[in-house]
Design a protein that fits this description.
alpha/beta, Rossmann fold, single chain, eight-stranded mixed sheet, 10 strands, 291 residues
């Protein structure tokens, strides 16, 4: 049995943001918080939810500002700090609803950049996390044309809210035709990105890469070798720069950008679940063995 709930909370400057949560019957062993990618929303992680609920995890997913059922101009931010502070408010909400429950944080694509930036810039606040998962992080070259990037750079200062389609190929998301058909019909999905979002994104990626050696939390990076949206070498470079010993990176041959919805999603989710099990607090693991 899966118990689903939804609600709203206030982000930066009181902007109303939407979130969903899924809970198993009985005791929750840990919580996974999910931050989605550009143009997506928190409802795109059904395979993750089903896999982890059966293992007594709760799953929370927010819709970033300008995405899904949250308010805000589609694909626009005034500054990256808005994402960071929205995520902090989201984590505080989870801590209130799931007190004393271990929290893992997963970011997919652009969401991985939001997550990595948060942990590196706010290490004290992030210390409540048990570990972080970066799913197909966009830390290097991305599948957006150079002309679109040039336009974004030129307009960020004079017309920051100007938006263009990202031009990202829908078929680069998954090798599963049924998944692609569902994406195409998803009314909450969009393909917009503002000029300011573009410049803030690249500045944030540069900052993350420059501070990779400061990383302290357990880290799992999962990437598809055939990812055309977020080329895998970017995540690998970041991984190599991380000095923390508790780090793992897995690259799946032939896999695309939406690993959790690709043909090999069961393999990916099994690896995710195994890593989570290894990083549960020891007290919880001892209690689990007694039950």
């Amino acid at each position: 049995m899966i118990y689903h709930s939804e609600g709203k909370f206030q982000g930066v400057e009181g902007l109303e943001l939407y979130y969903q949560s899924w809970h198993p019957e009985g005791k929750v062993r840990a919580t996974l918080a999910i931050v989605h990618g550009l143009g997506a929303h928190g409802g795109r992680y059904g395979n993750v939810v089903e896999h982890l609920i059966s293992k007594q995890y709760a799953v929370y997913a927010l819709d970033l500002r300008g995405h899904g059922q949250s308010l805000g101009q589609r694909g626009h931010i005034n500054g990256w700090a808005e994402f960071r502070e929205d995520l902090q408010a989201f984590l505080q909400l989870i801590q209130i609803q799931q007190p004393q429950c271990p929290i893992f944080l997963l970011g997919h694509s652009l969401g991985a950049v939001v997550v990595l930036d948060y942990v590196l810039r706010c290490p004290q606040k992030a210390s409540v996390l048990q570990g972080v998962i970066a799913l197909a992080p966009t830390l290097g070259k991305v599948g957006v044309s150079k002309i679109r990037l040039l336009i974004g750079n030129l307009l960020s200062r004079v017309w920051p809210r100007f938006t263009l389609s990202t031009g990202i190929d829908l078929s680069a998301g998954s090798r599963d035709e049924k998944v692609l058909a569902a994406y195409a019909q998803d009314p909450l999905r969009h393909t917009r990105g503002s000029a300011r979002l573009a410049t803030e994104f690249f500045a944030t990626v540069a900052w993350i890469n420059a501070h990779a050696a400061d990383w302290q939390l357990p880290l799992l990076i999962l990437h598809g070798s055939a990812d055309r949206v977020a080329l895998p070498e970017g995540g690998n470079i970041f991984y190599q720069r991380v000095a923390c010993e508790d780090k793992t990176r897995v690259e799946y041959p032939g896999a695309y950008h939406e690993l959790h919805n690709d043909l090999n999603y069961q393999e990916v989710l099994a690896d995710l679940a195994d890593w989570l099990e290894q990083h549960l607090p020891r007290v919880e693991m001892v209690m689990g063995n007694r039950e």
